[in-house]
Amino acid sequence: MKTLNFSIKEITATTAFEVRHPVLREGKPIDSCHFQGDDLPTTFHLGYYVNEQLVGVVTLMKNPYKELNTKNAYQLRGMAVLATFQKRGIGDALVKKAEEMIIARGGTFIWMNAREIAVRFYEKLQYQKHGAPFTIPKIGLHFVMVKTLTTL
Question: Residue 152, CB half-sphere, CA atoms under 13 Å: how many?
Answer without folding.
Answer: 11
